[in-house]
Automatic annotation (TrEMBL):
Protein name: Phospholipid scramblase-related protein
Superkingdom field: Bacteria
Length: 195
């Protein structure tokens, strides 16, 4: 899956959802490439009824194909710990080894966070517009290397649900870990930072 440069992310629609699921699709054919499934603990499910979801810990597992039950198909995980102001979000590979992390900026006009590798080197930055619909993936020199763009889902879905659709465009010929970090960053915009 990491040899691809574009992904269509479609959030599952549901009423009173306490966890999220996202399809990762080929934008041209709509073929399913993967699935991202949030897996908070039982206590966290209950706490989400009374505490802001963005403060609570969560884990999102990303699987290749259309099954989220087979752990051998897990590609990586996005893990956010409890936070009050600036969540630190870790990206773990299939074996649970940290390959990088995200840290939100303390002050910014639009949504923004930085992407770091395991050696604490900043490898990218994600900057959003003031609406929080379109995001640029920038390298450490602030050159655009990709984008995350919200796609209109129709009046009924936009007005009555919080489900969003995005297209993630990544750079050509990126290292597998960088592609994994950038795909995770695109998913984290909605799953971790906006929900």
């Amino acid at each position: 899956m990491f040899n691809r440069t574009t992904f269509f992310i479609r959030e599952h629609v549901g009423m009173l959802k306490l966890s999220d699921t996202y399809d990762i699709l080929d934008p041209a054919t709509q073929a399913q490439l993967g699935i991202a499934k949030e897996k908070p603990g039982a206590l966290i499910h209950v706490l989400r009824l009374i505490v802001n979801k963005r403060m609570l810990p969560t884990t999102v597992n990303v699987f290749e194909g259309d099954s989220h039950e087979n752990d051998s198909k897990r590609l990586f995980s996005i893990k956010r710990r409890f936070s009050l102001i600036r969540p630190k979000v870790e990206i773990l590979d299939r074996q649970g080894n940290k390959i990088g992390y995200f840290k939100s900026k303390l002050i910014s006009i639009g949504p923004s966070f930085m992407v770091f590798d395991t050696a604490d080197n900043q490898v990218a930055q994600i900057k959003g517009d003031w609406k929080g619909w379109n995001f640029q993936l920038l390298d450490k020199n602030e050159k655009e290397i990709g984008s995350v763009t919200k796609k209109w889902a129709g009046v009924g879905k936009e007005l009555f649900t919080s489900a969003d659709n995005y297209v993630i465009a990544l750079p050509d010929q990126a290292d597998k870990n960088i592609s994994m970090l950038l795909l995770a960053a695109g998913l984290a915009i909605d799953i971790v930072y906006k929900e």
